[in-house]
Amino acid sequence: MVDFVESTKMAVKTLTANRLRSALTMLGIIIGNASVITMVGVGEGAREYAAGQFESLGPNVLFIIPGSESAQNRTLERPRSLTLEDAEAIADQVPTVAGVAPQLQTQQAVVAGNLNTSSTVFGITPEFATVRSFEIADGRFINDEDVNRGTRVVALGPDLANSLFPGEDPVGQTLRIKNISFEVIGVMEAKGAFLGNNQDDIAYTPITTLSNQITGDTSPYGMEVSFISVMARDEQSMTAAQFQITNLLRLRHKTVDEDDFTVRNQKDALELVGNVTGALTMMLAAIAGISLFVGGIGIMNIMLVSVRERTQEIGLRKAIGASEQDILTQFMIEATILAALGGVIGTLVGSGGIMLISAVTPLAAGVSTTAVILAVGVSGGIGLFFGVVPARQAAKLDPIVALRSA
After folding, report:
1. pLDDT at 286
2. Which residues, 6+ apart, have CB-to-CB distance to 163 below 8 Å?
3. Residue 306: burial class (beta carbons within 10 Å; 0-12, 13-18, 19+)
4. Is the pLDDT confidence value at 164 over 90?
5. Residue 333 shares a structural domain with residue 305
6. Domain edge (last residue) among 234, 259, 284
7. Cα distance between residue 178 and residue 147, in whole Å
8. Which residue spans within 125-241 are E strands per DSSP?
């Protein structure tokens, strides 16, 4: 019978007697485990970050933009633009829709006193705040009367408000957009960035005011809009809403061969991003996993060297009665300890790396329990696998030959 306790004690004693060599042997396993855990954590953090970005656009949102998904327009006619009337038709005729927010967008110089900045200006309707989940922090938002009368009022994102009115209350003050005076009626709650675009550095004004007094865009079909945000009644209604909106706009635009608009589903976009980040995570983890394989080869090499160095010890132990199984077990335990300890240290290093990444980047990277279990399990398995050859070589040594060669 093999005495595992005694074999373990001897393995630990041997490893501690050669601390530097043991540490260098574990280095490959440490790097491999740390790399796998870090890469998986970063990948999951990227997926959660992308999901949070899309969710910040509002719940169950569809986006309708002008133009076909096709890279080449096969028709000679100018594609019909989306209009305010399209948005009104969707709100009136699509039963699965809970809110519709048409939006006109432009880049303008915004001036307040002796301060000025270039900012995105959104022409919107009151539904925008509900559909896109925006909240007002101070003052009020655009209302129906503002849209109907085309009043010169504006609500500011918090960053834009701080840039134009540092240390002041912007509400009630005036600013100029394209040399037209606007009254500031409100400041929005902070929303953050979406895919690199700062949503807090935007000015919001009635869509009629922006179209009629600033951009001057006209269309033979009605008031043009840059795109339309639509909120479905619930998550289960998104597919039906997308289908109904597509059919309605096809009838209104009289499209035959190719749609002159595109309806994009937030859920589909999120799934696509999740698939992409998931694939990248797997690729990065696989690349990092190569380090584990290299670390395993390092363990085998060091163990083979150890067998040669300890030939006399092995011969003496076999001469006084140690069996092949005893020798095999001791060397296997040594290899497993090296791999498992390297896995634990690598896990700690990888976890520290993830915490550092979370602290200095917007990625909410987290330690994946699955990745930890897998990495440590694989590293331990690598120790067993690559420890077999040197352990069998040691166990097969003839004690007489071993003692003579010492």
Report:
1. 76
2. 115, 117, 201
3. buried
4. yes
5. yes
6. 259
7. 19
8. 136-139, 153-156, 174-177, 180-188, 193-194, 197-198, 202-206, 227-232
Q: What is the pLDDT of residues 21-56, one digit of tens each?
A: 788 878 877 887 888 788 778 777 777 776 666 666
Helices within 254-368 (DSSP H only): 266-309, 311-319, 324-360
How far apart (Å, rounded) are the C-alpha atoms in residues 135 and 116?
25
63 belongs to a structural domain:
no
Cα(80)–Cα(64) distance, rounded to whole angstroms?
13
> Residue 204's pLDDT band (boundaries 50, 70, 90)?
very high
> Does 42 share its domain with 119?
no
Q: Which domain holds residue 380?
A: 4-53+271-405
CA-nearest of 181, 185, 173, 83 to 129 is 185
Domain-located, residue 59: no
Does one domain contain both 238 and 329?
Answer: no
d(CA 327, CA 404): 19
Give mean pLDDT, residues 328-344.
81
Rounded distance between C-alpha atoms, residue 39 and residue 344, angstroms: 17
277 and 254 within one domain: no
- H helix or E strand, kind and range, residue 23: helix 19-55
Query: How far apart are the two ends of the chain, measured CA to CA in Å?
Result: 28
**CA 223 from centre of chain:** 37
DSSP result, 198-251: ETTSEEEEEHHHIIIIII----TTSSB-SEEEEEESSGGGHHHHHHHHHHHHHH
Quick one: DSSP state of residue 71? S
Interatomic CA distance for residues 161 and 323, integer angstroms: 81
| pLDDT mean over 245-268 | 82
Q: How far apart are CA 10 and CA 63, in angstroms?
A: 68
User: In angstroms, rounded to a whole number, what is the distance separating the alpha carbons of residues 178 and 83?
Assistant: 23
* Residues 176 and 164 sit within 8 Å (Cβ to Cβ): no
Overall size of the chain counted in residues: 406
Domain boundary among 197, 230, 259: 259
> What is the torsion angle, in degrees rounded to the nearest 10, for the CA atoms of residue 230, residue 81, residue 198 and residue 212?
-100
Q: How many domains does the chain have?
A: 2
3-class SS of residue 257: coil
CB atoms within 10 A of CB 50: 19
